Amino acid sequence: MRIFLIGFMGCGKTTLGKKLAQKMSYSFMDLDYELEKAAGVSVSNYFSVNGEEAFRILEKGTLNTLDYPTNCIVSTGGGTPCFFDNMEFMNRSGITIYVDLSPLALAKRLEHGKHKRPLIASMDEQQLVAFIKEKLEERHPYYERSFLTVNGINITPEQVRNELFQIF
Predict the structure, then answer these.
(1) What does the longest C-alpha to C-alpha distance in the chain come to?
(2) pLDDT grade, residue 118 (50/70/90)?
(3) How many CB atoms lie within 10 A of CB 3?
(4) CB 3.0 to 4.6 Å from 78: which of 9, 18, 89, 135, for a disulfide?
């Protein structure tokens, strides 16, 4: 089973994905890491130099051409489901899980590492919360098309695994 973790940046996709992969004895893949390998530079550098449109094209190409193991957990970028047919691709290729968090919880998580994220690097706390609310509103129609939604606060790999086994 292939599992794609989706959700806003900072919601915990990579952390949860690594733990879930270990718990289920699955491989773990991080789409941002794969993008960096393909581009030869960090995601933030690529985004800053080439812009969002070029980044999204690279992201789609990488998402669609990766050699996914049969049993793997894939952590995606926050905007991945919202461009081209990426959400449809992930739903056809596996199971999507939306890791949901409130705008305030996301802002608290993102505050300390925001210098690494070009979209939010120069924002103060109030701007960051407003930005997150706006983006979540835009992205909600994509995120809600996931097979499963989990609350990112205190979610454990065991809880996700149990929910998956109940559904499938």
Answers:
(1) 45
(2) confident
(3) 24
(4) 9
- Cα distance between residue 148 and residue 69, in whole Å: 21
Tell me the pTM. 0.95
Q: Which residues pair with 151 in a beta bridge?
A: 100
pLDDT > 70 fraction of the chain, expressed in percent and rounded: 100
pLDDT in tens, 102-114: 999 999 999 988 8
Chain segment 1-14, per-residue pLDDT in tens: 999 999 999 999 99
Q: Are 5 and 90 in contact (CB under 8 A)?
A: no
How far apart are the C-alpha atoms of 97 and 3, rounded to whole Å?
7
Domains and CATH numbers, the chain: 2-167 (3.40.50.300)
Roughly how many angstroms between the first and final C-alpha of the chain, as a whole number?
10
